[in-house]
Amino acid sequence: xxxxxxxxxxxxxxxxxxxxxLRKECxxxxxxxxxxxxxxxxxxxxxxxxxxESEDYEELSKELGDLLLHVVFHSTMxxxxxxxxxxxxxxxxxxxxxxxxxxxxxxxxxxNDKVVAENWESIKLSEGRESILDGIPAxxxxxxxxxRMQEKAANVGFDWAEWKLAWEKLNEExxxxxxxxxxxxxxxxxxxxxxxxxxxxxxxxxxxxxxxDSIRMANKKFDDRFRYIExxxxxxxxxxxxxxxxxxxxxxxxxxxxxxx
Length: 261
Hints:
This protein has 261 residues and is mostly helical.
């Protein structure tokens, strides 16, 4: 069949048709399954987050397109097996949003975002969930999951009154971890280390800081500064393995003094 008439379009229905054509005609697209491309979906989501953090909106529009591709592709594969179709996906999210916003689409009153969050959790429990923690993906990165669990518990009132009280708990966890490091098993050390990290996430959350965002910033800073060390050593035909710690520390401090790094 001749598809030379197909052109880029801003129409959603045209996009669905485009994916259907690829699924039918392209050998690679045709062999894919939900399982084979599930990791790509996660990767595309992280790439979109990178664009948001760098405020690169032109790239963000492209990455959101990649995410949309996965939504439509998975829906197309599901439709082939009579599981659901794109219309079902759109209907179900629309129905959920209307149901969970009764302060807009019904007669519930919500004076502020805190009440909205409380109502949201109550509605989810009325939908059959056993816990407000249900629905948090098991495989979320640990810091994100800790933040989401704490946030959900806070929505129903299980929270510290202020960050200073959580800070006291953080200091307690530091002492317990130190005790574990000085004389307990690796398993006990790991447990106490986890408690410490969880408490750090809690303090940050109460200060409106996001642990995952912060660790990404720290990772980037380390990446930039270590690459500076490699660059400076490379200018002299050497590598980090050929340098001593004192020399690398000197370059690290040079990079640190540069506000860009």
